[in-house]
């Protein structure tokens, strides 16, 4: 009799162990970037850089300093992103932090485009028209900023609940298989026997 069921259990256990080690590594990385070591979390730093873009509207619309300050903030965000990336484990998918950084860079790009457009408009339009357009731009960008954070918070909450549910379900399956193996011993480690046990457990029959 082959122990294919035992191999399946061991493979499942190794996958769970890898996930636990990865989570532990991520937690350690987050601790290393905590307030006591790095001066704050990456998200709060990116949020601060993004909020600082609104301070550029205090500069005269016709001044080129607006665009210069915004480009400086954009380059600062890119540099900080590269630094944070070195402190986190390499993975093949986008994390919440990656999505937030991308959105922050897009927002900085929109602000830079707005400053470039209004700089060009200052040549052809009156000061009153430029100030009116500038006020509309501030309201629009502020609305985009607030709407994104609300949507992003909802997205994080929903996906976190979904992933937590999946992990709890997988943990239950693993514990059920492990309990079956411990109860019947090494000779019972067949895929068919495990499936029969699992079907009885789901049906309400205790082993």
Automatic annotation (TrEMBL):
Keywords on record: Membrane, Transmembrane, Transmembrane helix
Membrane-spanning residues: 67-84, 96-118, 138-158
Membrane is among the record's keywords: yes
InterPro entries: Neuro-gated_channel_TM_sf, Neuro_actylchol_rec, Neurotrans-gated_channel_TM
GO cellular component, as recorded: membrane
Pfam families: Neur_chan_memb (PF02932)
GO biological process: monoatomic ion transport
Gene3D superfamilies in UniProt: Neurotransmitter-gated ion-channel transmembrane domain
Coiled-coil zones: none
Superkingdom to which the source organism belongs: Eukaryota
Domain Neurotransmitter-gated ion-channel transmembrane as annotated: residue spans: 48-124
Protein name: Neurotransmitter-gated ion-channel transmembrane domain-containing protein
């Amino acid at each position: 009799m082959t122990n294919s069921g035992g191999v399946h259990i061991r493979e499942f256990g190794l996958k769970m162990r890898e996930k636990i080690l990865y989570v532990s590594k991520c937690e350690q990385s987050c601790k290393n970037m905590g307030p006591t070591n790095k001066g704050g979390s990456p998200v709060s730093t990116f949020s601060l850089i993004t909020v600082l873009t609104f301070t550029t509207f205090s500069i005269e619309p016709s001044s080129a300093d607006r665009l210069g300050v915004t480009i400086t903030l954009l380059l600062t965000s890119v540099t900080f992103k590269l630094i944070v990336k070195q402190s986190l484990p390499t993975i093949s998918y986008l994390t919440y932090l990656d999505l937030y950084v991308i959105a922050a860079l897009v927002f900085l790009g929109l602000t830079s485009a707005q400053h470039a457009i209004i700089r060009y408009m200052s040549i052809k339009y009156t000061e009153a028209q430029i100030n009116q357009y500038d006020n509309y731009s501030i309201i629009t960008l502020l609305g985009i900023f607030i709407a994104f954070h609300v949507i992003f918070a909802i997205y994080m909450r929903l996906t976190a609940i979904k992933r937590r549910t999946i992990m709890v379900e997988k943990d239950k399956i693993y514990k059920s298989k492990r309990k079956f193996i411990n109860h019947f011993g090494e000779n019972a480690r067949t895929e068919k026997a495990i499936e029969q046990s699992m079907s009885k457990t789901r049906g309400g029959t205790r082993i």
